[in-house]
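ugh finaly. both done.
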Amino acid sequence: MAPRLQLEKAAWRWAETMRPEELSQEHIETAYRIWLEPCIRGVCRCNCKGNPNCLVGIGERIWLGEIDENSFHNIDDLNCERRKKNSFVGLINLGATYYVNTFLRVWFLNLELRQALYLCPSICSDYMMENGVHEEKDFEPQTICEHLQYLFALLQNSNRRYIDPSGFVKTFSLDTGQQKDAQEFSKLFMSLLEDTLSKQKNPDVRNIVQQFCGKYTYVTVCDQCGRESNLLSKFYELELNIQGHKQLTDCISEFLMEEKLERDNRYFCVNCQSKQNATRKIRLLSLLCTLNLQLMCFVFDGQTGLKKKLNTYIGFSETLDMDPYVDHKPGSYVYELSAVLIHQGVSAYSGHYIAQVKDPQSGKWYKFNYEDMEKMEGKKLQLGIEEDLAEPSKSQTCRLKCGKGTHCSQNAYMLVYGLQSQEKPNWTVEVPAFLQELVDCDNAKFEAWCIEMRKRRVDKGKAKHEEVKELYQRLPAGAEPYEFVSLEWLQKWLDELTPTKPIDNHTSLCSHDKLHPDKISIMKRISKYVADIFYSRYGGGPRLTVKALGKKCVVEGCRVLHLKNQLNKDYKMVNNLLKATRKGDDGFWVGKSSLRSWCQLALEQLDVQDGDAYQSNGKMNGNTFSKDESKEERKEEEEELNFNEDILCPHGELCISENERRLVSKEAWSKLQQYFPKAPELPSCRECCSQCKILEREGEENKPLHKMIANEQKTSLPNLFQD
């Protein structure tokens, strides 16, 4: 027997000979195990849950010796706030704005854009020249360009593990609690950036965004006179329809495909001075060094009036040759894949955004997910679980087979390609001096914060160390006034990683708001001196003093034990009577199901709400109810039936099936009747139900007819199936 069970049995051994109404305070304290010997450290290996005085192995070991300040908890946690060597800085997710972070990742790793932005003059440099970095007032960027400059400088040289992009997000007046259209945000950003830079005096700065801008023209040809009309337009990204397509090249071909302008959509020809049928197409004139391809997976649903997401698999290659699509070719347009922006989720209004971006300097792929960054193995793009959807069974059937150098995705909403170069430039982007001074200032603040936080945590750890060393020695109650406290709370108090919360003893209370005797295994008895300190520092309750010992519960427990012991004796007696040879045909009919479960039914009849002694394997104190039937099966059968009602027919008479009942002796029935006085009494001379006999006889007479009908139905089944 396990030590805990031995302690429980010993705590109630007195109840075998003591009547419930004769209980004394000594018996109550014994049931609550007040005077059990406390365990000794070094002798007891682990905490004895059956002994409320055992205060060993609850987490005290790490606090009782001398502790070096570097070993206090959370000291190493500060290193988690620090940027790791040769890693990228993370971006804090502000709520529903992670789609902004994914674009920032792509733009930051675009070295040409980053260097061009660093060259852009701003009030940052003027501020630094006038005030330096020692002013108490922090510098606050004003324009989008300044926010982006400062953010990129922090991403490049900050000592922090992650930085806060809230200043950049506020410039767009974005609601951090509401997810916006990521594709619309991309266009909004580029237009605002262009507007900001166009106001600069330096023409080279004004044209920074133009370096990342392509050109195409809308070509409209009149079918009547053949006149060609051209409307020049610039673009930062190509918006590609993916519905009905499987490959990226098919989407590009559709984007450039001719469109017929007929009927109500006819074109007004200036030459003909009338509306004419015409053809219209897009002609690519020049492409940018970074090609952004927006996969239009978020589309308008005309039936609901809302946007929906297209979960269509699109295949794309790591190398994209755009030469066949460009009319005027000032150079070669062969691109390499540099980023994939992914939206996880089936709704256009919710989900999670992930960026997989290629580092242009190392050529390695990185996955940016919230504040975390993960380097892909083998310099390869790995979409992996980002392609898992809520309904994988539907998506797997449509998944494309991808060859070497190609990928397929149903969650990608933007592909970024960089212009392929014969010679890979091995160059780095230097942070301008005025921005680096701001970064150094922020790094100094971060280091000061780390020192201050470390000091606070060391001081807090030392205070906790002294508290535990002092109070743990005074924790045992002995013969002095005592209280009970939750073992779980004590363990959390001693846990260096868990903040101490108010004491909560509610789970150990009985229906009388006293300490339940059965909950003593999850409680510990401590001195009132320490309990007073605990409640003054941490609060909580209710306080469980000596007045919390529940006499009513102990009396009830004693009564239950008496009933169980008597029931155990009667169970053995009935068993022996059933095994004994019965003399004559006198006796009483009892349902076999009732016989198998009469002990459980007896407990219910006696209103004993104690199931621990009656295990689910059908045993009570070592005696087996049934070898071939579990408690769950019995419960199903007798859920709605009382004892011996299982052999009553629907008419309330003795059932005609003898397989469901058994004849027992008068002595056995007399003992059973003590527990079930209202059970149906069915002597052996009782006739079976006459109505059931008539129904049975009619069933036998109609059996050939029923068999013939069944054969006819069986013969007609193949015809029904084939028709």
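ok and the 2nd:
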Amino acid sequence: MRSVPEIIGLDEKGVVVNAGRNRTISGRVWFGTLIFLGVLSLALIITVIVQARNRAKYDNTNKNKNENENDVCLTQGCISAATHQLRSIDSAVSSNLCKDFYTYACGGWQKTHPIQSFDVERTILGDIINRRDTEIERLLDSPIIRSDQRSWEYKVKTYYTECRDDYIRVNTSATYLIAIIQDPSTINGWFMFDNSAENVSQEALLKNQTLYQQMSHIHGDFGKFDEDDPTIKRLELYPAGLSMEVSDYEEDDPISTSRRAAFQIYIIEIMKLLAKDAGITDINVEDRAFTVANDVFTIEKFLADSLRRNPTSSVPRTTNLQEISTQFSFEFDQIMRHELDDPDAISILTPIYLTNNMYFTDAFELVTDLENPLFARMVHNYLRWRLVATYINDLPYNYVHKHREYLSAYYGYTLHSTNEDYCTREVIRRFPFAIQRLYTMNSAIYSNAITTVETVSNELIKSFKTYLDKNAKWMVDEQTKNMAKEKLNALTTAIGYASIASDDASLDDYYDKFFVANDAHLQNSYSYHLFHRSVLSNALKNPNLLDHWDFFETRPSRLFEYIAIFNRLFVVASGMHEPLVNAEWPWAMNFGSLGVLLAQKLFASIDGPDGRTHLPNGTRNDWWQPPTKIGYNNSRNCITDYYVNELKTLTYEVNGVVVQVQLAGEPFSPTTLRHIGALRIAHGALMRNNDMKSLKMPGTNLTSEQTFFLAYAQTQCYQRQPLLQLLRTQLGSYDEGTALNAALIHMPEFAKAFECEARKNQCFD
């Protein structure tokens, strides 16, 4: 056995020490620490059991006090679940739980989970995603095992490493992007650069291109498709092109006014940085920067005004590439062939869903008027700015810093995001299958967790059908009700991860067309765009190739989602952990936590903006009949009346100033209705699978129904800076506590479980 050499050194007082002996002492300390932690954990479990026995005799929350200690569930799962719930509740306010259940459920959590100094809010789901991202960041930082440059692991980890290369990104300029813009064979210059010569016009373009030339090079060669839209498989054309909310372009309130100013200042600052890196120093450079900012804002304001006048319909117009090319006098068929890696993936008869005909009519009347020199310059500057904005976070840090300053000014509070955070998010968003593989091969994803989630989802669907048959009085007519049941019968689930994420060879083939360099992040970002073109081509030719996981994964901040065009519920592997699910927990916990969250998504399959406008096969069609629309609106008005006439206001303290916000109830009331519906569906599923029967939880002495409602409430715990929530409330998005209490107050099931006084008008049944 090889001996370990002793290391001799000096301690902080200059005394000679033996490092080998120190390691022995350190080991004993660690061993002692582990023993202490073990005893502490055992003490916690004993405490839960003791509390369970005591509360069976002296319970202030549950009013049925005639139970003996044998009625307590003492399985490992019950003890684990009770321990989890006890960490978050605030029993000191239990006497008021009928009116403010949120504070009872989450008061303890709020005291022990402060907002981080660099954040503006903290939520349960946000914590899960942050832990997942931290784990993925650690895995991306780990050594490359499969070092072949063709392997998915080499490509993704190299991309991440170059994104994080602080030295390179601090000491480089935007010369690569500038060279792309000035390349005569592609974008062929920019007003910002071209008009820098002496005695050159500062109003008109020196070089101009047709709209097709600009769109094909800027959008097709270097721009990015909107990766947040899952309907791209259907070639759906939808309004885009805005940098701010529609109201920000028109309203005269202080918030919108300051946002407009911040946006134009941001463009000017970026233009000045680009000019500096391009070596442009003429006396008119700042004037041209102002001109670019004004042109961009003018185009976006025109588009925003069109969108305001012509809201997007829930039922799009069905057409094809040939027809819209003729209608808008623009070569849509050619540009789509140019933008896709495989031109044969489409034809002139490829179906198109045009979501807003009037918006596109207005937009193309503007952007095709290039005979007018002023409009020609505006379109020219707007398109090139959109390219820069696309890659702004991939540029050197001085550009990134200006972007972060703009976001802070736009939202009214400082947004802190490290480069590590950005790079992790980008890799998760751009390479979802590689991340699935990296995560699942290094994390404990147990088959029993997947089985539990599958059981929960299946039981929710059964309960949903029962709800439609026996309740759902708001869904008045049988035609609508039958279509809702037809959607549920056809609904499929995808739980865990895509099959491709379990095979290295398949992933290597999938990422074959993605090329990565180990010394240039912006080039890698552009290389990703080229790769993404091939992905879209394959998706159009083989829409079921990846079983639709590819488009669920374009939503990296979602742990679960219902996607209407596929009529499918997705649950990703990283969401199948505590505090949402545990295979050992009683069903009251699993149905109350993840169950209600999934039920909200299922309920959206019939009442959400997408769900009520998509048939079971994914075809767009508004299938609600007039009687159901009236019944739903009656319930919606009832909830709105509760917010306006009963709750009335919400109060916030911002920088020592107390501010009251008058509630309008809209557009938030549909969210409350969905919460009520989801709770009712999950509660019904629990009643069919109640494994606790008459037993109560240890420590809390709650029944299974009470545990169910508490489990859901504790998925809604949050902390948020008052100013942020104030702004959200003013825009009609109420906080989780308000939403939870509003839903529970309108549920007779909750009132019965906790022996609260039930409301006469429940609004939604």
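summary for the 2nd one i guess: The two ends are 75 Å apart (CA to CA).
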